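note to self — DONT lose this again. spent like an hour looking for the file last time. sequence + predicted structure for the chain T wanted, 152 res
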Amino acid sequence: MKVSDILRVKGNTLYTSTPDEPLARAVELMAEKDIGSLVVMEHGDLVGMLTFREVIQTIVQNGGIVGGTLVRKAMDDAPLTCTAETELDEVRRMMLERHARYMPVMDKRMLMGVISLYDVAKAVVDSQNFENKMLKAYIRDWPSEEEESPKL
């Protein structure tokens, strides 16, 4: 299974921010859309990723307030990325190694989408459930020994 399989099911709605946007506005958008991340774009290029992890770290550093902080100061400026052709097993490994919950999907320099650890886990579970159904159907239709050998 590839990342493209997740994107096909998930759809193509993307939420972005610019690095010079106030962090407070970015947090409002995340709350309004009930999302855990924003891709930070500047002049059409991916320059960072803002997740609730970076927001919380910034609030703690600022003594409990967002203040006038810009997204640029809070964002991860070296986010983990993948392509639509990346295998799901590789994505899981990458996300687990870096403790990344969100990963932008890129096609060269073009943002194709964002997948989350939830999306990956759901795809794996759905795939396993389908495989289990197929195996159970196969076992249920297994011919008995009497049906296999003709009687003489």
